[in-house]
Each structure stands twice: as C-alpha cells, then as structure tokens.
Amino acid sequence: MNKLEVADQNEYESNYFAIELIGHVAHIKLNRPEKRNAMNWDFWRDLPGIIADIDRNSRSRCIVLSSTGTVFSAGLDLSLFGQDVFSSSEAVKKNEKELQPPQNFMNFLSFLQKSISSLQKARIPVICAIQGGCIGGGVDLICSADIRLATNDAFFSIRETKIGMVADVGTFPRIVKLLPEGIVKELAFTGRNFSAHEAKEWGFVNRLYESHEALIEGALEMAKEITLNSPAAVFGCKKVIDFSRDHTIDEGLDWINMWNASMLSQSELMEGFRSYKDKTEGNFAELPKLKDHFSKN
Questions:
Q1: Which of 61, 174, 252, 268 is most buried, with most CB under 10 Å away?
Q2: Percent of the chain, pLDDT > 90?
Q3: CA–CA gap between residue 165 and residue 104 (Å, rounded)
Q4: Tens digit of pLDDT for each residue in 106-141?
Q5: Taking the CB of residue 292, how many other CB atoms lie within 10 A of it?
Q6: Which carries the bigger pLDDT value, residue 201 or residue 91?
Q7: Residue 203 — left, alpha, or beta (φ > 0 → left; ψ -120 to 50 → alpha)?
C-alpha cells in the first residue's frame, strides 16, 4: 500500500496511487501499469480523498498527476461494468420497481463525477502529465486538470462512443471549453484516436516532450515554478479564470473586484515586491488548512 509520506498523523494510503511530496509539489501517480492503469474501484474511491487531504491540509502548492508504464490510462476498468448499477437484470429478478435501477445508476454516476471533479475543485493547480494512450475515463480525468502536458507519442480517444455509450463522467461539459465545438463533435461522433500533435495544435495540451522521463521532469519543473509564487495569488488566479470562462466579461470583472477587495493581502503583496526586486524566493504564507466541520475532532 502506498502512503503519503508527510509528518502528519493523517497520512493517506492507497492501493492504486503512488504519492510523493517533493518540496511544495505533490506528485500523484496512477500506479497500475500491469492493467494499463484502468480505473478500478480503488481509483474512484481514493482519488477525491487524496486530493482533499493534500488540498485541505495545505500539504503542497501544486499537484502533478502522472502515470506509470506505457499507457496513461485505458479508462474505466471492465470490472465496473459488472456492477448492478449498469444493468436492470438483477432488479428485474428481485421484482424491484422500474425506477430503482435508473436512480441507482444516477447515484453511481454522480459518485464517479464527483471523484473526477475533485481536481477542478482543489484550491491548488493540477498538472496532468500524459504518456501513451489516454482513453475514455482518462480523458474525463485530464479535462478536469488545469494544465495538460504530453509525450509526442501520446494519443487521446473519447472511446465511449465505440461501445455504445455517451461519455458521462465529465468529458463533454469540460472539453467544449477547451476545444472548438466542431472538433469536439468530430472526436465524439467518430471515437477516433487524436494525436498529441493534434491536441497541441488545438490548445488541448500546453507542451510536448520526447520521452516519458522528459515529460515528468518538465511537469515537476513547471510545478516548482508555480510554487515559487504566492499560494493565495495562484488560488485566486484559478478561481477567477474558471469563473471568467463560464461568465460574461462584465461578470468576470465584477468577480475580480470582489475577490481582490476581500482576499488581497498587503503582506503578501509587499513580500512579492521584495522578492521580485531582490531576485530571491518569496517567503509567502501557505493556504490555511480547512477544518472539516462535520468531524468530531
């Protein structure tokens, strides 16, 4: 079992992910290469807990989400399709009411969606480093990240169409904000592989790398550069950019006004000016730890 190695009693363990803290960067790896990093129950259950633990306890200032082996992720593990929520046959055998299977499926799907959404909802930036194939649920995952990097040989596929499904865990609501509508429809209707170079041309990924090793090195270097800035300012940038993307310009301007009026810190601002002038690393405050109000502790 892989453990988040930090000096805190709330260490997070996972059978699916390998987790490492490198300075102010949390490096989370999909660590099931023998199964092409297919997303089994451990993935869906552990991901939101790991992200929340890192974010709420201010364990890092940036997250790098990468993978192991030759494939980033083959998507949902086929074992999930054997669950009762995907079929009404068991419900029919048990003489359950007609609406029970669809409602169970909706509840299950909401669970998967919330797991993926944990990346977007985190206060800190998430960089996805993608090598090889990124298929189906893997595309759902990376669309929730803030920045995507890839190897030259990476490829992506909205594969659900090929097996008679509509991608439903988060691809479409997010990818239409990342790619032109016509491109999204082509990729969804065909289910074809689209290459890393196409993804770079369309702005879906920021940078391409020659090898998996160079990709990880580049992702960690970018993450380190992010962590040199004020965590509060980076958090504010993430919130304002996401809000502005989904609203009008005037609404975005009003949001920025409210954010800086309530969140701008004079001490952080002065430290930023000082470190920039002196060309030294700033001594910025960490984001506050978030208390779980439902906890008895």
A1: 61
A2: 82
A3: 17
A4: 888 999 999 999 999 999 999 999 999 999 999 999
A5: 10
A6: 201
A7: left
Q: For residue range 182-208, what is the model confidence (pLDDT) as tens digits? A: 999 999 999 999 999 999 999 999 999
Q: pTM of the entire structure?
A: 0.91
Q: Work out the number of other CB atoms within 10 angstroms of the CB of residue 168.
A: 14
294 pLDDT higher than 50: no
| Domains of the chain from N-terminus onward | 2-227 (3.90.226.10), 229-297 (1.10.12.10)
Question: Could you tell me the pLDDT band of residue 100, with boundaries at 50, 70 and 90?
Answer: low
What DSSP element (H or E) covers 149? strand 147-151
169 neighbors 73 (Cβ within 8 angstroms): no
Task: State the DSSP code for 56.
Answer: H
pLDDT of the residue at 9 = 35
Strand 126-130 to 62-67 pairing: parallel
Residue length of the chain: 297
* Closest alpha carbon to 76 in 144, 15, 165: 165
Segment (H or E) for 180:
none
pLDDT the model gives residue 293: 55
Nearest in space to 218 (alpha carbons), one of 144, 150, 124, 142: 150
Beta 17-22 vs 25-30: how paired, if at all?
antiparallel
d(CA 22, CA 44): 24
Sign, CA torsion 45/51/57/59: positive
Instruction: In whole angstroms, give the CA distance from residue 19 to residue 11.
Output: 11
Per-residue burial over 29-66, b = 16 or more CB atoms within 10 Å of its CB, e = otherwise: bbbbeeebbbbbeebbebbbebbbbbbbbbbbbbbbbb
Residues 204, 134: contact at Cβ < 8 Å?
no
- Residue type at position 189: F
